[in-house]
Design brief:
2 copies of one chain form a homodimer.
Chain A (H helix, E strand, L loop, with lengths): L7 H16 L4 H8 L3 H14 L2 E3 L6 E3 L2 H12 L1 H17 L2 E8 L2 E8 L15 E3 L4 H7 L4 H10 L13 H14 L2 E4 L6 E9 L5 E10 L5 H25 L2
Antiparallel strand pairs in A: 1-2, 3-4, 3-8, 4-5, 6-7, 7-8
Helix pairs in contact in A: 1-3, 2-3, 5-9
Chain A binds a DNA duplex through helix 3.
DNA sequence: AAAATTGGTTTCACAATATGAAACATAGAA
DNA sequence: TTCTATGTTTCATATTGTGAAACCAATTTT
């Protein structure tokens, strides 16, 4: 058994918040059923959330919904993530130059966490990425870009700790194949994701080192395959590498 | 006394989260001191937050920080706010046409809550608005734009329930003056904020009705006074009213 | 219209759970 | 070394959260 929450209610409270966020609007019975909570307990948790201003109850339907107080908190958190402040102008520039949506991630264990994105204007199809959401390193462009710059043992550790699943028919699930791919990434200076993570989406990614010289960040341009044939990839590569150079320089200089 | 939290720890948990968000990184002692919590209690709360993945402890310094899990939750919440999906393209268009930052708010009691913003690219000076943060109705462009379209009694109720303070020398703190201003807004179709809320910032705002025909939303273009003389305001007015018409139409049609 | 069902709200006796004083551990400063 | 400042763990205690059951108010069914 993997140790329990030092505060029982805390788990319940966040479960409720999470469910409110997920559903947008939900009734007491559905909620308590979904979470396996006693009706009264669920009610008390909701009352508490309302008391604190994180939830509200719809007058008409009696259903419960989240307020935007969490969103405010989230934005406070983001405003403190100073890497974002530094790289955003570059990401914008890259988006303008290419017309495609740009993502920026930070490594966290065997995952990458989205910490910024700049969406393309023209782009009809929107990527479903969300700031704060995660993507595994082993099957994403940004992930491969980062792992490629790590020591062999670390790459292997990440592979072994990851739960390898075929998300699409193109997902690499064999370690030796993965290693070959990494070698390619090192040669080119950027990584490609050919629908390995989500069908219909290709992306070009490049990693960045932090102040300590450790691989920590990566960014990517992603677009539907229809706009990402080999010629286009070749064309975009230049922009990506250029942006990478600029950002790396500024990140290093910022807090030497 | 105004009734207490049905779950005591809940308050403490969110106080801690809020403080983590605010400070970015904080030690146990500072935290417990700041919140008036017992050292052990603070420690337990933090342990619980870490257990759930909402906080982490810096290996090197021992200090505690928020993770991005809350941010993910916040974005889930925002993705459910469908008004945003509808109006964003219009806000973008407005930003592109004017080159100025555009805000979109929803009324909540005597406040307006920011639910979307599109920042101008060129803009050197960044507004400090945050999605989810609040601004009083009585002293903001968006607020006046909304109140102007309400019944007299509702306007008065809002005024009386608001805590009127002079945020700047230009803030209107007299009700009869406020009413005159509202009359002007009705005539023009848009509201102006001449540094009434923040010195150095002017904005043009316009309100929108929801599906039920109730005044519920508003949007604004804001910019530093240096770029907002009377000529410029006159020039921008057209864009604002145009955007307002388009959005109102689409909001009404969406779920008739 | 009466009865039954459904969802939200309140009460209350009980014990599980959060509490905080105090002791402990560790690292850096004097 | 000793002192001081932080973070961590223990443990006896009662405060706090718990959930069964009763309650209320709309709907829906009969």
């Amino acid at each position: 058994m993997e140790q329990k929450n030092p505060i029982q209610v805390a788990g319940r409270i966040f479960d409720v918040m999470e469910l409110l966020a997920e559903s947008g609007s939900i009734g007491l019975m559905d909620l308590s059923g979904e979470l396996g909570l006693n009706k009264t307990t669920a009610y008390r948790v909701l009352s508490s959330l309302i008391y604190m201003g994180y939830a509200r109850q719809d007058e008409a339907t009696g259903k419960y919904e989240p307020t935007l107080k969490i969103v405010d908190m989230a934005n406070k958190i983001m405003s403190k993530v100073d890497v974002v402040q530094i790289v955003r102008p570059h990401l914008r520039k890259l988006m303008e130059a290419t017309g495609e949506t740009v993502h920026f991630v930070e490594r966290d264990g065997t995952d990458a966490v989205y910490i910024d994105k700049v969406e393309s204007f023209t782009n009809g199809i929107q990527m479903v990425s969300r700031i704060g959401s995660r993507i595994p390193l082993y099957c994403s462009g940004v992930g491969k870009a980062m792992v490629a710059q790590m020591d062999e043992w670390e790459a292997e550790e990440i592979w072994n700790s990851s739960e390898i699943v075929s998300l699409t028919p193109y997902t690499v699930t064999d370690y030796s194949e993965f290693k070959k791919e990494l070698e390619l990434v090192r040669q080119r200076g950027y990584a490609l994701d050919n629908e390995e993570n989500e069908i219909g989406v290709r992306c070009i990614a490049c990693s960045l080192k932090d102040v300590m010289g450790k691989v920590k960040y990566a960014f990517s341009i992603s677009a539907p395959v229809s706009r990402m044939d080999n010629d286009r990839i070749h064309e975009l590569t230049g922009y990506v590498l250029e942006a990478g150079r600029e950002m790396e320089e500024q990140l290093a200089g910022g807090a030497g």
